[in-house]
Design brief:
This protein is α/β, with parallel strands linked by helices. The protein has helices spanning 11-23, 34-44, 60-69, 85-94, 107-117; strands spanning 3-7, 27-31, 48-51, 76-80, 98-101.
Length: 124
């Protein structure tokens, strides 16, 4: 089973994403800040990381930089409420693969999960 790490400090959003991830058939790991996200990512090597930008302690941008510096090569997707073009550019510069806005229905998250985690064999 493929694993997704979701890093966010908002418990309500974590619960929403948990339902989405588990309904899609993936295992979910969580982290409450950037430091924990880096630690869990390096220890568990999830297939995909969803990372919020604004978290206490180490923010998501710093966490992505640290992960890339430490050789973590799996996709890291920034999942954030920030519509700032500056944040989008900073996220890509830090090493994230995509920048997805948090929305009420989270449809974009389902698209990203499918894009990065679906095997060709899933369709055969």
């Amino acid at each position: 089973m493929k694993t997704v790490l979701y890093a966010d400090d908002n418990l309500e959003i974590i619960e929403l994403v948990k339902v989405l991830i588990e309904r899609a058939g993936y295992q979910l790991l969580t982290a409450r800040d950037g430091n924990e996200a880096v630690q869990v990512s390096l220890e568990e090597n999830p297939d995909l990381v969803l990372m919020d930008i604004n978290m206490p302690g180490m923010d998501g941008l710093s966490a992505v930089r640290q992960l890339r510096d430490d050789g973590f090569n799996n996709p890291v997707i920034m999942l954030t409420a920030s519509e700032s073009e500056e944040d989008r550019e900073s996220a890509i510069d830090a090493g994230s693969d995509e920048y997805v806005l948090k929305t009420i229905d989270m449809g974009d998250v389902e698209i990203v999960l499918s894009r990065y985690l679906s095997d060709v064999s899933d369709f055969l």
